[in-house]
Amino acid sequence: MVLNSGSSSIKFQLLQMDDRECLCKGLIERIGLEDAIFSYQPREAASIKKVQPIRDHGTGIELALQAITDPVTGVIKSPEEIQAVGHRIVHGGEKIVKSELLTPEIISIIEECAVLAPLHNPPNLMGVEAITHLLPEVPQVGVFDTAFHATMPDESFIYALPYDYYEKHGIRRFGFHGASHQYVTRRAAEMLGKSLKEFNCITCHMGNGVSLTAVRNGKSVDTTLGYGTMCGVPMGTRAGDVDPAVILTLIGKLHMSTSDVHRLIYKESGLRGMSGLTHDMRDVVLAANEGNKRADLALRIFAHCARKHIAALATNLEGRMDALVFTAGIGEHSPDTRARICAGLEILGARLDQKKNEIKGKEAIISSEESVIPILVIPTNEELMIALDTEEIVTSLQLDS
């Protein structure tokens, strides 16, 4: 079983690893809201979709396990059939740079790193705790977002602070959404008939969390998220890039505490703060189309920041960009957002086909015939990447025993 817990969503899958087939999958969205959405799709049965309050991530994971083992809708008879659980874990700091068996020591490090990923590490661990309670004998593996970005050169991940802050305190750019960026890079190369080892692209993971990555010769060389999970493009509730002078003003002039500032820039900003409505891009697009000026402003700011980072990342590709890839909730399902972002990227040779862009949640090439750079939509499959790492670690553990 794979659990991929985001800041306001959970993806889950049950995979049969002999043939890498997905027995069932589900998505829980809008966690914490009264109209949260629980979607469940068994491989050989009708899908189920319910709108109901889902208080937190623990509640959502319990619902997922109930669906998987339900006498009518389930695909296994008992949770005891689950042989391993792989978790997406966002941040392992300097101490963890690869997938790991989730021992008490590793869990302790994940807890220490919660300050770097406050919207992610805690819900990640809620999944670990739920499985530990329900399936105490099942091995669990953490697959860390930072792994794909370990190939970044030092000029990409070291900040222009006195070097001691990196050497002594590990302050550096880490990068996140690694499994997603890795999967869509591989899939884009396959779709375009390119060798991964020679493939250059920019991948745009756009969900409630957002990160963009420059990939050169199949490897990450730069990315927008950094030491924590707040910089770069604005997100659902996170501000993205903010001049540090603003932070100092909030503390020094407005007398806000550090916890107040933390809450402001991580939980009250982004789409929610700009629109004054919600963190959900679908609701913001709908409001903008109905004439809400604040919602339209939020969309324009989001697209402006995304375009700016795409252009900057392109300078890391040694003069050749083989693809621009959109993925994750917004990237896969919001034609309006993709169109706003691509308007202006013609200078890079990327031209959108408005009709092709109408798709949602499907693999497609949405660039025009005149586009020098192919523009792709690829639904991410972080779960498969997590499952493969989990299988490798658990198999090695069994062989050693």
Task: Describe the structure concisely for a colleague.
37% of the residues lie in helices and 18% in strands. The chain is α/β, with parallel strands linked by helices and 401 residues long.
Highlighted features:
Nucleotidyltransferase, domain 5, alpha/beta, six-stranded mixed sheet, eight-stranded mixed sheet, 14 helices, 14 strands, 401 residues, single chain
Radius of gyration, in Å, reads: 21 Å
The appropriate CATH architecture of the largest domain is: 2-Layer Sandwich
Order of helices and strands: EEEEEHEEHHEHHHEEEHHHHHEHHEEH
Helicity level: 25-40%
Question: If you had to describe this structure to a student in words, what would you say it looks like?
Answer:
By secondary structure, the chain is α/β, with parallel strands linked by helices. It folds into two domains: 2-144, ATPase, nucleotide binding domain (Nucleotidyltransferase, domain 5, 2-Layer Sandwich), CATH 3.30.420; 193-377, ATPase, nucleotide binding domain (Nucleotidyltransferase, domain 5). 37% of the residues lie in helices and 18% in strands. It is built from 14 helices and 14 strands. It has helices spanning 57-69, 104-112, 121-134, 154-157, 164-169, 178-191, 244-252, 258-267, 270-275, 281-289, 293-314, 328-333, 335-342, 382-400; strands spanning 2-5, 10-16, 21-29, 36-42, 48-52, 85-89, 100-101, 140-144, 201-206, 210-216, 219-223, 323-327, 364-365, 375-377. The strands form two sheets. It has an eight-stranded mixed sheet with strand order 5-4-3-2-1-6-8-7, sandwiched between helices. A six-stranded mixed sheet has the order 11-10-9-12-14-13, sandwiched between helices. β2 and β3 form a beta hairpin. The model has no long low-confidence stretch (mean pLDDT 93).
